Amino acid sequence: MKLTELFLVTIVTERILRDDIISLIKEQGSKGHTITDTTGEGSRGTRVSDFEGKNVKIETVVSRDVGNKIIDAISEAYFENYAVIVYANPVKVVRGDKYI
Amino acid sequence: METLLTNFTSPIVLAFVLGIVAKLIKSDLEFPRPIYQGLSIYLLLAIGLKGGVELSTTPFAEFVWPATSTLFLGILTPLTAYAVLRYMGKIDIDNSAGIAAHYGSVSAVTFIAAISYAETLGDTPEGFMPTLVALLEVPGIIVALMIPQLSKSESGSIKKAFHEVITGSSIVLLLGGLVVGYIAGPLKFEPVKPFFVNGFQGALVLFLLELGMITARRLQDLRKVGFFLLGFGIIVPIIHGFLAVVIGLWSGLSVAGASVFAAMVSSGSYIAAPAAVRIALPKASPTLYLTASLGITFPFNIAFGIPLYYIIATWLGG
After folding, report:
1. Please, what is the Cα angle at A14 between B211 and B37, to 5 degrees?
2. A45, B148, B187, B274: least buried by Cβ within 10 Å?
3. pLDDT digits over B136-181, tens only?
């Protein structure tokens, strides 16, 4: 099976931003994503998500180019005022053309 | 004094205290999230349904003035709260507006607790009260969120916040329940009545147990918010409550109705408002607004406020 090298971009954030971030990554060219409810602790204190539910982890497999655009767009829009973590890992996927 | 004691020994208040104690002694008691959500759907829908059924037999004229008063207070209370925070408390614009949005809006649980308190005393508030809750929820938040918009251009999206308030689960369930109950009327409501009416108080006890635990988590933040906010969270609700009793009685509400009205107006939202404020005023600190509305005003109202408004209403209108 042929493997293609792509990037797995992971965003962990407040539940309240879920829908906004999903439309953002779609706009930047992501073809799909996986969402998981998560809990954890970070540098920011109180979270409104106490009521909104758990934090969410959004994962999407994209090309390097789209990955960079997603990271830039999220840092621009949310880093200052919200609890957001973004990181990227290189991954090898089968059926690479599905994601780009 | 006796009214206060009745309240302290009610299972609703005691369950709330139990929830707080459970967290303070670090018990492993945890309320499963789906049950919490299920209970809140049940309670809000039940209140909406009951209100709708009673609204279907209420003459329109009886309802006009209380509704108008609700809108008036919905606009006034965030402004007074903002003025106190900004000019007496010297709190910055974003945080003042964020907290004011909570106090302009209404806590559905405080409302439900006030209704059940009046009913325990053998009194019946007007059936259309849930409609007033829905009317009160929205303007307060919007007015408070407009303040920073007027004084500077940089802010979050007010449109999105508006959507969040209007489509929030509490409004959808309350208004939806009202409409369903109104259309169904007393006769068709009869078959579902046992489920929504008989189980209600019990569900409320369970819900308050969970809210006690949530409140306990907020109590740890009390030290961070300072004495001004502590005083604010108690004194401003009393002032708003007093005002609401006067206006409520004037608009034609009964003593029980006016006391429930006061509990509504004095309470601070902690479901719709936090979400809206987080979106529209991202710079406002959730620690401040959640601690004020949930850590200070909510327990105050549940324990002292509700009976106090009842006493004031009896005194002025009885």
Report:
1. 35
2. B187
3. 988 888 888 888 877 765 555 677 777 777 887 778 888 899 999 9
